[in-house]
Automatic annotation (TrEMBL):
Protein name from the UniProt record: Putative GCN5-related N-acetyltransferase
Keyword hit for Metal-binding: no
PROSITE patterns, sorted: GNAT
Segments forming domain N-acetyltransferase: 37-191
InterPro entries hit by this protein: Acyl_CoA_acyltransferase, GNAT_dom, N-acetyltransferase
An MF annotation (GO) of this entry: acyltransferase activity, transferring groups other than amino-acyl groups
Keyword list, A-Z: Transferase
UniProt entry tagged with the keyword Electron transport: no
Amino acid sequence: MDLRWSCAGCKLPGMEPPEMINAGDLVLKRWEPEWAPEATAAVRESLPELKPWMPWANDGYDLAASRSYIDRSVESWAAGTEFNYALFTTVGDVIGSIGLMTRVGPGALEIGYWIRTPWAGRGHMTAAVRVLTRVALTLPGIDRVVIRHDAANLASGRVAEKAGFVETERLAVDPTTPAGSGTEILREFKP
Ligand SMILES: CC(C)(COP(=O)(O)OP(=O)(O)OC[C@H]1O[C@@H](n2cnc3c(N)ncnc32)[C@H](O)[C@@H]1OP(=O)(O)O)[C@@H](O)C(=O)NCCC(=O)NCCS
């Protein structure tokens, strides 16, 4: 087990992040159960891009899977362990997900993300990561924000790099996704 990721029950020490965040062309909103059908459509449409990298993305992904994800997001928000947001365009399309996780341990938050394929490559995730990083660093007790991605996941690495995250460590891991290379890169926001 990687002890750096063993903080399963770690809670945010102070105030929680806002439920809604404006990020230029996008709005981040805390996940709500009523968005499960739209989330299912977004994931299903993006499976070719998600399956290589996301352990939960598979051909059987359905409404029950989305509901379960959103239910867990509601619970973990209440527990103070994870803060997951749906990404919306200004006209109300659900185009992905981004979240803050406490699992890296005290004083730090980790950002995770995916985007709906038709909206990829337009700078949206970089913009969302930039804003969520700023928000994370305003939270009491938080002074580090990190991103972890497979070394072969060049798009994710590029998003992190563009948003100001520099590589601090490489970790040997057992791959948990089809394209996993066995090496993960840990990056930290360095303004
Ligand atoms: C990673 C991901 C969220 C990027 O979202 P996005 O909105 O397309 O990101 P942006 O448009 O802000 O930036 C993407 C950057 O990656 C680059 N990129 C995309 N695919 C690439 C590839 N195969 N190789 C190298 N660079 C790549 C783009 O050119 C762009 O960089 P640029 O602005 O310098 O040209 C999206 O690809 C995705 O959802 N991937 C699957 C899920 C995933 O891997 N999540 C992260 C797990 S750690």
